[in-house]
Specification:
Elements lengths: L5 E5 L5 H10 L3 E6 L9 E4 L5 H7 L5 E4 L6 H11 L2 E4 L4 H11 L5 E3 L8 H10 L4 E13 L14 H9 L2 E5 L2 E5 L6 E5 L2 E7 L7 H5 L5 E8 L3 H11 L6 H11 L6 E13 L2 E11 L2 E3 L2 E3 L1 H19 L6 E2 L7 H4 L11 H8 L1
Parallel strand pairs: 1-2, 1-4, 2-3, 4-5, 5-6, 6-17, 7-12
Antiparallel strand pairs: 7-13, 8-9, 10-11, 11-12, 13-14, 15-16
Helix pairs in contact: 1-10, 3-4, 6-9
Length: 363
C-alpha cells in the first residue's frame, strides 16, 4: 500500500500522547482520539468511543495507519476496523489472546498488523533476537525488564506508572516458555531469582506476555526461553499474598484500584532491561548480554517518565520502519523479526541511545 502520511493514535494517556508527539516529530500527520477531551497536545484530537463501530471507522478515514494505546481489552475493535479498511495497525498489548486473534486476522490482511510494539513485548524481543543472531546455534534466551520507581517506598517498592489492568493481567495469566526444549505454560509470580544490575539487587519472576511470539519462533531451536519481570526485593511475595491468599485474583478491577491507591504513579522512575543469550560460535560456548538503564527524558521540551518514553519510542520506531520500507507492508510482524540495527537508526528508536540528540548537537 502507499506510504504512511496520516496516523490516528487512539488512547491519549501517558504513552499515547507521547506516541503522537514522536510520530509528528518523525514527519507524520497525526490525529488523536480518546474517550475524553485531552488538552495540551501538539496535534488535533477528538472524543471517540471505540465501541461505536461507525464512529471508529469515520475516525480512520484518510489515515494510512492507526496506533492503539488503549488498555489491552479495547484493542480488538481497533484492529478489526484497521483490517476492514486495509490500513496499518500497531499496538502495545502484552495480552496473549488479543495477539492471537490479531495474528489470525493477519493471514488475509492487505496491510500490516503489528501488535506488541511496546517495551515488553517489543523492545526486549528485538534486543534478544539481535544477541541471538550472533550465534551459530543458541542454547538459551533469557529476557528481563523492570519499570520501577527511582526512590521506592513501602514493602512493595512499586509505583503504577502504567496500566494497572495490564499489570494485574500479566501477574495472573499463565506464561509461555521453552524449558528443556519443550514449549510449556507456567504460572506467573514463580521462578523467583536474584539479579544484580549495575550494583543494584533486584528480584525477577515470571509474568505473562513478555515474550510475545518468541516461543512460536524458537520452538525446536533451543533449550531455554523465558521472560521475567524485575522488581525490588520482596515485591513478588507480597503480590502473591495480595492476589492469591487474600483472593483478589477473583476481582481484577478492584485489585487494580486498590494497588493504584496504595502505589500511585511517580515522576521519578527508571526502566531496566536485561537480555542474556548463550550459544555456540566457532565451536565455543559463549554468553552475550545487554543491560539498559533508562531514566526520564526530555523530548521537545517536555520531560517524560522512563516507562512512557521507552514504550512510546518502540511503537513509533516500528511505524517509521513500515513507512520507510525496512519492514513488510502487509501481514503480521513479529517483534523478534525487526532488525535491531535499522530500528535504532529511526528517529524514535535512536532515542534509546541518544543517537538523534548526538547528531543534532554535532550539526
Amino acid at each position: 500500500m502507499a506510504n504512511i502520511e496520516k496516523v490516528c493514535v487512539v488512547g491519549l494517556g501517558k504513552v499515547g500522547s507521547l506516541v503522537g508527539t514522536l510520530l509528528q516529530r518523525a514527519g507524520f500527520e497525526v490525529i488523536g482520539r480518546d474517550a475524553r477531551p485531552v488538552e495540551g497536545l501538539t496535534f488535533s484530537s477528538d472524543v471517540l468511543d471505540v465501541s461505536d463501530t461507525a464512529a471508529l471507522n469515520d475516525a480512520l478515514d484518510g489515515c494510512q495507519g492507526v496506533v492503539s494505546c488503549l488498555p489491552y481489552q479495547f484493542n480488538l475493535p481497533v484492529a478489526k476496523a484497521a483490517f476492514d479498511k486495509g490500513i496499518h495497525y500497531f499496538d502495545l498489548t502484552e495480552d496473549v489472546p488479543t495477539t492471537n486473534a490479531i495474528q489470525e486476522m493477519a493471514a488475509d490482511a492487505k496491510s500490516v498488523l503489528a501488535p506488541q510494539c511496546g517495551l515488553a513485548p517489543g523492545y526486549i524481543g528485538i534486543v534478544g533476537a539481535h544477541l541471538a543472531s550472533k550465534f551459530e546455534k543458541v542454547r538459551s534466551i533469557e529476557l528481563r525488564v523492570g519499570a520501577l520507581p527511582e526512590n521506592p517506598r513501602g514493602s512493595m517498592g512499586y509505583s503504577f506508572t502504567w496500566s494497572s489492568a495490564g499489570v494485574i493481567n500479566e501477574y495472573l495469566n499463565e506464561c509461555e516458555v521453552i524449558s528443556m526444549g519443550e514449549r510449556s505454560m507456567v504460572p506467573s509470580l514463580e521462578g523467583l531469582e536474584t539479579i544484580h544490575l549495575n550494583g543494584l539487587r533486584l528480584e525477577a519472576f515470571t509474568t505473562s506476555g513478555g515474550l510475545g511470539t518468541m516461543c512460536e519462533t524458537w520452538a525446536g531451536k533451543l533449550e531455554t526461553l523465558n521472560y521475567k519481570t524485575m522488581r525490588y526485593p520482596g515485591h513478588c511475595d507480597r503480590m502473591r499474598f495480595f492476589l492469591h491468599e487474600l483472593g483478589m485474583h477473583r476481582d481484577r478491577e478492584e485489585a487494580g484500584r486498590i494497588l493504584v491507591e496504595a502505589c500511585p504513579p511517580v515522576q521519578e522512575d527508571v526502566v531496566y532491561v536485561h537480555a542474556a543469550v548463550e550459544g555456540w560460535q566457532s565451536g565455543d560456548l559463549q554468553r552475550e548480554e545487554f543491560v539498559g538503564e533508562y531514566s526520564p527524558k526530555e523530548i521537545d521540551g517536555v520531560e517524560w517518565r522512563a516507562i512512557s518514553w521507552t514504550t512510546a519510542c518502540s511503537v513509533a520506531a516500528v511505524v517509521e520502519m513500515v513507512n520507510n520500507g525496512s519492514l513488510p507492508d502487509r501481514g503480521f510482524i513479529k517483534q523478534e523479526e525487526i532488525p535491531f540495527e535499522t530500528y535504532i537508526l529511526t528517529k524514535s528508536g535512536g532515542l534509546y541511545f541518544d543517537i538523534v540528540f548526538e547528531e543534532e548537537e554535532n550539526e
